[in-house]
Structures are given as C-alpha cells and as structure tokens.
Design brief:
The N and C termini lie far apart (52 Å). It is built from 12 helices and 5 strands. It has 2 domains: 29-89, Orthogonal Bundle (Arc Repressor Mutant, subunit A); 95-205, Winged helix-like DNA-binding domain superfamily/Winged helix DNA-binding domain (Arc Repressor Mutant, subunit A, Orthogonal Bundle), CATH 1.10.10.10. It is 52% helix and 9% strand.
Length: 216
C-alpha cells in the first residue's frame, strides 16, 4: 500500500454545461485575457490611459473595461476627474482557468502563436458556443455516434446538432468517421481531454458574489 493515491480523472460529463458556457462567454471576449495580464501585477488601481498604453492594439480600452466591470472582473474607482480600474478577486481567480486553457491548447491545438493571451482566448472561443459543451458531453458518453443520437441526447433538432458538430470538427474537437455528411462523429484527442478545462471553468463560474450581466 502506497502513501499516495492516484487522482481520478475529471469526467467531461460531470460538469454543468450551462455554467461552463456562461463563464466561457466572459473569458472568450477579445482582449479580456490581455487586459487581465496588464492589471494582474498592479497593487493599486490604474487609470484608463495608462492601461491603454500597455495595449495599443485595443481600440476601445474604456469600453472593454466597462464590460469587465459589468462581468465582475475589475473594480472601478474615481470621479469626473478620472476613472481607475483594478482586478477584483474574481478577476484574479482567472489565473488557474487561463493556465488550464493554455495548457490544453499547447498540447492539443496546432496553432502557430505562442502568445499566452492569444492561445487562451483562441481556446475559449472554440468552446463557448451555445450547446457546444452539451454536444461534447454527448459524444463523450455515447462514443462514435450519429447526428440524430446527439440531437436526441442534447434535446435539440438534428439541424442544430449537425451545425454544432461541424463547428466542433472545424475547431479540432470532433471528427467525422467517414467522408459523407451523415457519417458518425466522435471526439478527437483534444475533445476528449477537456475534462480538466471544463472543471476549472465551472469552478470559476461559482466564484462568490457574482451574477452574469443580463442580456449579454
């Protein structure tokens, strides 16, 4: 008998797909990861002009910061003479989620960029589409299966399931087992490795004292 026990793998089916997708919609927003990286080392609030100087490619830093404030990622202080922003506890809690997304991307996605924020946001954008998590979960549970079986499992019409499967296929998460359109689908290695990523994202969504912005 050993002193350590093997860590059980995190099952894709164990997460709540609605919580995962709600969180990913926030994480996947363009430039959000870069903004978090700029603010993370700061111990005091930063003015918008100083933040924008670090991200010259961001056309509307003020608009992005306002959205991040609505999402609970930053706190805001100041008055009519100047507004400053700082990462909230919720924003700082993104660190393990970003690491999970980057690590999964680095191991499984053949994209050229090595820039941390670009890989994180690319990974999140591949995962955040509505019902994509449910379709991945269906493929994980059913194995190689048909569009009709996935549609039934997810509770949607075959046309929508087909579009989601094709999107997952184009993103490298699912594969078609034959050349014709109606061929069964299965998860790729990348899709099958999403358990830890989904778990990290779901845990972050449950961070205290945050309600998603209505109408986003």
């Amino acid at each position: 008998m050993t002193d350590t026990a093997e860590t059980a793998p995190i099952e894709i089916r164990s997460v709540n797909e609605q919580r995962v997708e709600a969180a990913l919609r926030v994480i996947a927003r363009r430039w959000t990861t870069s903004m978090v990286q700029v603010l993370a080392p700061q111990q005091a609030p930063m003015r918008v002009c100083d933040i924008a100087a670090h991200l010259p490619s961001v056309a509307n830093a003020y608009g992005l910061l306002n959205q991040m404030h609505a999402d609970g990622l930053v706190t805001r202080s100041g008055d009519h003479t100047g507004i400053s922003y700082q990462l909230s506890d919720r924003g700082r809690a993104l660190s393990p989620v970003h690491r999970a997304l980057f690590g999964w991307s680095w191991l499984h996605l053949p994209i050229r960029t090595t820039v941390y924020a670009e890989r994180v946001e690319d990974a999140a954008r591949r995962l955040h589409s509505r019902k994509s998590t449910a379709v991945v979960q269906a493929l994980d549970e059913l194995g190689t299966t048909s569009i009709l079986s996935v549609a039934k499992k997810v509770g949607t019409v075959p046309g929508h399931a087909s579009r989601r499967l094709e999107r997952l296929r184009s993103d490298g998460l699912a594969a078609r087992t034959g050349p014709h359109h109606g061929a069964p689908y299965k998860l790729t290695d990348a899709g099958g490795a999403l358990g830890p990523v989904y778990s990290a994202v779901e845990s972050w969504h449950e961070f205290p004292e945050w309600t998603p912005t209505q109408g986003r």
